[in-house]
Automatic annotation (TrEMBL):
The keyword Secreted does not apply. One of its GO terms (cellular component) is cytosol. Homooctamer. This is Delta-aminolevulinic acid dehydratase. The keyword Nucleotidyltransferase does not apply. Pathway: Porphyrin-containing compound metabolism; protoporphyrin-IX biosynthesis; coproporphyrinogen-III from 5-aminolevulinate: step 1/4. PROSITE patterns: D_ALA_DEHYDRATASE. SUPFAM superfamilies: Aldolase. The active site is at residues 201, 254. 5-aminolevulinate 1 binds at residues 211, 223.
Amino acid sequence: MAVELSSILHGGFAHPLSRKWQAERQLTKEMLMYPLFITDCPDEETLVSSLPGQYRRGINKLVPFLTSLVERGLKSVILFGVPLAPTAKDPVGSQSCAPHGPVIQGIQTLKSAFPGLFIACDVCLCEYTSHGHCGVIRPDGRLDNALSVQRIKETAIGYAIAGADCVAPSDMNDGRIRAIKEGLREVGLENKVLLMSYAAKFAGNLYGPFRDAAGSAPSFGDRKCYQLPPSGKGLARRAILRDLNEGADVIMVKPASAYLDVIADAKELARNVPIAAYQVSGEYAMIHAAAKAGVFDLKAMAMETFEGILRAGATIVISYFTEQVLLEGWLDN
Ligand SMILES: NCc1[nH]cc(CCC(=O)O)c1CC(=O)O
Ligand SMILES: [Zn+2]
Ligand SMILES: [Zn+2]
């Protein structure tokens, strides 16, 4: 039986190099952003047991830890504040941008040690509120959108003034992108600070290890009324368009692997801005657990997830694997 010549595919990817050519984009060090948990105990360095190999660190441990990573090509980090002092939490999260708080201290410390490192800051209140929700709560238990946006704006502007290169609100309150962009303009930083929106952030089961690391689990209820429902493809498209319209400079999709269609939607809807994907704590922990159980090789699987994320359209990847990628030279070949 004669085979149609156009049916023959294997010749196109027989060599390792011709396999690489199949990628529209290759992962580079510039694409990787590494999450850092910074506590208010200066000398702390505590392993987060549900997030294999990842630590919460105090301000004095940051530079020693990051030096070798920066030498190996770390280009950007995203900071999460983890206040441990009981006095650091209240109903409105008023310590979120305290000058002596972990994020502002972290920005200043990292900027002076590594002037070229791009510093993004997650902007949210859940680490600072006594109830663990991402905004200010009304008496009836719902988020007070206006008050929450006011506090999120204040927090973002505090980080921007302290020297952050990027503010990234993850709170999901309606209208926060416009408020932050306006706030940046009010303080004259709109042409210096990048605004990355957690635009399509889904409620789900993959944030547990992060909440252990950040101590930010809600004390009642869940986040389903402000983070998107996993099946909400249309809602994600509306959120992406809205945040773009309000002035987002980067659109993020989170989590990554179960939401590759949403990344592809973001790429299509937001063609004029870079798309970021957050491979979240639960994704990282799952890959570790399965590798440990012998299901697959850790590096091979992690790299396959990156290929999928890039194929879908993201060019910024926030991942806890960044450390290992750099230290073990996963991109060198
Ligand atoms: N709003 C806080 C925030 N910012 C980033 C993450 C998740 C990151 C991860 O799981 O790695 C979360 C957790 C949440 O929304 O509960
Ligand atoms: Zn957050
Ligand atoms: Zn939050």
